[in-house]
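Collaborator request, handled under Task 6.
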Amino acid sequence: MHSQEALEAGRALVPTLVRQLRTLATTEAAPEHSVRGINDPFMQIALMRVMRTVARGSQAAADELNDVLALVATLDDAASNVGTAMLYECAVTALAIPSDAPLRVLAINLLGKFLANPDNNARYVALATLSTAVITEAPSVQRHRDTVLQCMSDDDISIRRRALDLSFALINAQNAKHIITEILRVLPRADLEFRSSMVYRLSAAITLFADSHEWHVERMLRVLSLGGNYLNARDLFKFIRLVAADADEALQRRATRISFALLERDISQDKMVVAGAWLIGEYADLLVARSQRASDAEAVAPKSPGLDEDDLDILGALGRPIQESKPEGSPEAGGAPGAIGLDEELPEAIPEPAAVVRLLSAIARSSSVSASARQIALTALAKVAGRFADQPAVVTSICTTLGQFSHSMDQEVQSRAVEFDKLLSRELDGVRAAVVERMPVPEYAEIPYEEYVLNPTAMRMKALTIIKRPAMDPADLIGASAGGDAKAAAAAAAEASKQSVVSDLLNLMDEAPPAATSSPPPQQQSKMDSIADLLSSTSLSPIPTSQAVTSPRTMHAITSNDDLDREYEVFNSNGLKILLTPSKRPSAPQVLDIQAKFVNAGESAISELAFLVAVPKSQKIQIHPPSGQHISAGASVEQLLRVSNPGKSAVRLRMKVAFVTDGEKHESMFDYGGFPASVF
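Structure tokens returned to the collaborator:
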């Protein structure tokens, strides 16, 4: 870290450095200094790196650099390695300082052109830089989305990795369906080391951006069928609970029929087997029941051919059921057995009860599935026996199957088989129905996804050089006054400006910034302590601007508290009104959901909306992206905040909002603690 004195001295030299760089860029190169027609590129790169260091956080220094960086970007080309290096340094410098918006767009476009460069190194550095730039320049990076998606199939593994990271970071409410489909298309042939991360982030993206339960369930079934071996237990439970708690009967029926059809094709994906067997056991009556339009259902969802006894032995040996052969020209021919094209509808099966028993028996016998999947299959058999108690042949078949497992070498499987066989005996007829009835909706204290689950790069050190961080104004300090107080505030601002962007990011998550190497004077320390005490954790570092443009689906809990689910006005200035609506979910009573609504009460459109919030140390906050950054006159956008408050203490919010209207940028920082105590 440079000293403040050296930094100020370097900023004083910016005009001289700019003149030198302009001279090198515009004059003809001497033969001894020319490299591929570029005048002393090593000196030009060194100058840009120095200016990038001294201009970071200084608007005045950045204004000096805007023109010369635009000049360098237009004079050089990427036809050679040296030209590519020059353009790369120019783009990184433009993104690292608070430069003008057109220059930042130009920098993103330069990096986008690198993606078409045949040189792997150029494509790699472009993807890596775009992954960090997307934090603040998401709209510009979105223009290169199609090229980024193509890079997921590149021959170079490092480029595939970077392209995957950037593809996830680009997901928002408008493009979620398209990008998720493209990533699912890559998943079956992705490198093994990528699949766990891909499946986890796919589950997070589907959960955050699902616009309906139907789409949510359908996409998760595709994830399970393509990467079920890599899904973690938490996301599996979330899916099962979604079907059990939020889906209506029609969606439960469809999910169960799709699961049955997928398991008939392939039982190699373990979590797919677990989820499918659980759904079949719970909703077997819906699985085989005919709808009122039976003929229409049969037209789109043909009957399952079922498996005979000879097929069971083959399935147990190979780990996947027998499936119908596909025509040579069909989309599935030549692919993985049982693969479903992403452009196809997921198959639905309407089997007979006997076919259900045969499939569950086959899963229980298979050595390719996990022990937990076999145990769930046995449990599902017992539940199916309860659903079809009026069909003696089905119950007898299930009892026979359970009897075969009563001598299993697996102790848990043997125990379940003996218990369920006893449950199906005549002497327990009176209690069987109650035991095998549908399970109540499982209780679940929701654990939200990490704030940067789709873009881990945002928390890496190399991302921090990209975040725009304007210089701190002493007036931003609460309690600063004229005279000695102003001098102390200025000193505090100078010290705070030396804190890295790591501190700024951690402040939003209520972590203390790194300790300074020297202690401030007692009077200054007292002033800083009094400021920090306002929220017990809020740092004096400036809050970075974020430009995410996504919006997750939110759910509101039903509650009898009159202070919840009502709007509280917290801000009304320059045509923007901010309303906060607190609510709670029964499944997470310690979490307060706050829906922020931004209303354009003026006559001009609002753009570049950015909203940041901090809470005391005893609480944690998760800030979801807003549904948009542009608000037409009379319109509104929303943003979800989730405050974890295990101590039930008063929720106090320190907020910063920035927006542009009529070409003028407005920024305001304010506090709010007006929620009634009953809200906590």
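The cover message to the collaborator said: "The mean pLDDT is 76. The chain has 27 helices and ten strands. Please let us know whether this matches your experimental observations."
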